[in-house]
Amino acid sequence: MLPPVTDQGKVTLTLWQGSWIAAWAVGIVVWGGILWAIAFHRKRGDGLPQQVRYNLPIEILYTVLPFIMVGVLFYFTARDENYITKNPAHPNVIVNVIAEQWTWEFQYPQYPVTSSAAAFRHVTEVGAMWSPDAKTQHLPLLVIPENETVRFNLTSLDVIHGFWVVPFEFKRQVIPGFKNRFTVTPDKTGSFIGRCSELCGVYHGRMLFRIRIVTPAQFRSWINGQQAQQDRSGGAQ
């Protein structure tokens, strides 16, 4: 896995690592038991070995122990899943993500655009739909602040898409007619590429977007610049 860039991604990575450690521990015990039986209980003659009909302690052990292991894994999985999928009532930043074949649109409903001639009522970043005739593609830019809660509201205009930023260690489907959402708290600045993770048509592989995690001050500066620019131009950038 890539180093996670969100608090939720770190929890996902820790759960994944813990599950691997548990799996290896069980595997080592099982393989050890098999090798021990092969080494010390080989056939040594034509006589039957001592027959044991019941061994109550061993039967209790291999019945109870799996229940304990499953219970422990279930506890940590449920605990981490509840944290990862939690959506606070008042996030710092809200981004409405609109997907369509084969591009993305990002709206910031908390930051209005006041010009009456503007195409949108709030700061909006629109990508250019990819086509085989286009020589270049404008990848929409998603900008979010570091160390602040960011909620994504996901909707689709046509088919099922998938919103995926690899270092988030998380992806969620974007379903037409259904509002999905999730929340992250970025903890590192940087630039990344997001993509659609659901096969959505012939140009699915071209459905990309850019994402930048910046400091809160840089985010406010970018928002102010977008508001001023979209006020003047009357449209989204």
Short description:
Helix content is 34%, strand content 27%. The chain has 237 residues and is α+β, with helices and mostly antiparallel strands.
Topology:
Layout: H1 7-40, H2 56-84, E1 93-100, E2 103-112, E3 122-126, E4 141-145, E5 150-156, E6 161-165, E7 170-174, E8 180-184, E9 190-196, E10 208-214, H3 216-233
Parallel strand pairs: 1-5, 4-10
Antiparallel strand pairs: 1-2, 2-3, 5-8, 6-7, 6-9, 9-10
Helix pairs in contact: 1-2
Structural features:
237 residues, Helix Hairpins, Immunoglobulin-like, five-stranded mixed β-sheet, 3 helices, 27% strand
CATH architectural category of the largest domain: Sandwich
CATH C-level name of the largest domain: Mainly Beta
Q: Pick out the low-confidence regions.
A: none
What's the oligomerization state? single chain
Strand order of the largest sheet: 3-2-1-5-8
Derived structural class: alpha+beta
Mean of all residue-level pLDDT scores: 88
Radius of gyration: 26 Å
Number of domains: 2
Helix content: 25-40%
Largest sheet: 5 strands, mixed
Q: What's the CATH topology label of the largest domain?
A: Immunoglobulin-like
End-to-end span in angstroms? 33 Å
Net shape: elongated
Q: How many E strands?
A: 10
